[in-house]
Specification:
The chain has one helix and four strands. By secondary structure, it is mostly beta strands.
């Protein structure tokens, strides 16, 4: 009998914070979500072991565009 083991790596996105900021595209105060993407080792498609951070970004709730987190410092959020 041949056993099949399925393993890999997957990015999981989580929301770190929320608030209002001045979106460069919208030009006015809009809601945002500061998101972080972490890499996990998976076994049978289940994320088990965190393997580090892939990146982070800020997503505008108005236009849906993504920005680098530094945009929050510029808008005073």
């Amino acid at each position: 009998m041949l056993g099949l083991i399925i393993w890999g790596r997957k990015g999981v996105t989580s929301t770190e914070s929320q608030g209002t900021f001045d979106c460069p595209a919208c030009g006015t105060g809009k809601p945002y979500e500061h998101k972080k993407v972490r890499s996990f080792f998976t076994l049978y498609f289940i994320p088990l072991i965190p393997m580090g951070t892939r990146g982070e970004y800020v997503e505008c709730g108005g236009c849906g565009k993504s920005w680098k987190p530094e945009v929050l410092a510029r808008s005073g959020a």
